[in-house]
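Below is a filled-in request sheet from our internal design queue. Each sheet records the structural input a requester submitted and the sequence that came back. We keep these sheets so that new team members can see what a complete request looks like end to end.

REQUESTER: design group, bay 2
PRIORITY: normal
MODE: inverse folding
CHAIN LENGTH: 168
BACKBONE (tokenized):
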């Protein structure tokens, strides 16, 4: 990832891709099972469906509890905004009209397996990162850059875990 000097209001994004030697159905079963995600994340501690939901569907909500040594502990409610089995699973964090982040898995059949990408966008809604920027506005671009690098490392590790499980 290159230094872009992006500001939070720019809605900066990160995307990582991998190829998995497994069918889209096999990969979908993993990416759409939010209960597996804490085992594959350095920050996410737990995830629970809300409102009686048992799985992903547009409009379904889940709460995630996370922890980061510099940012502390926090809880967010996410709203599923896209859900097409074996194709795309996306959610908006906090307010779907003004999310603090958007996350998306995309699956595509390729070369007898599945190309899987995980993408995330910061903002435009306020988040814990906004609080750090409020305290040090002159360091906004560095704060955003460092956080995007953390997300890039985390996404890379998550995709490696999904690949390992799908190919097992």
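RETURNED SEQUENCE:
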């Amino acid at each position: 990832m290159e230094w872009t000097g992006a500001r939070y209001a720019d809605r900066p994004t990160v995307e990582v891709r991998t190829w998995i030697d497994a069918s889209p159905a096999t990969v979908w079963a993993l990416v759409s099972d939010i209960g597996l995600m804490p085992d594959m994340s350095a920050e996410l501690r737990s995830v629970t469906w809300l409102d009686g939901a048992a799985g992903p569907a547009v409009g379904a909500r889940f709460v995630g509890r996370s922890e980061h040594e510099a940012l502390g502990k926090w809880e967010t409610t996410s709203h599923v905004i896209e859900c097409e089995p074996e194709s795309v699973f996306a959610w908006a964090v906090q307010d779907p009209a003004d999310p603090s982040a958007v996350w998306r898995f995309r699956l595509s059949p390729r070369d007898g397996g599945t190309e899987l990408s995980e993408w995330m966008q910061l903002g435009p809604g306020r988040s814990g990162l906004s609080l750090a920027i409020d305290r040090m506005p002159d360091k906004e671009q560095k704060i955003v850059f460092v956080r995007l690098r953390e997300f890039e490392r985390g996404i890379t590790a998550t995709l490696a875990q999904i690949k390992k499980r799908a190919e097992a």
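SHEET NOTES:
- The chain has a mean pLDDT of 94.
- Helices lie at 24-31, 128-135, 140-167.
FILED BY: M.R.
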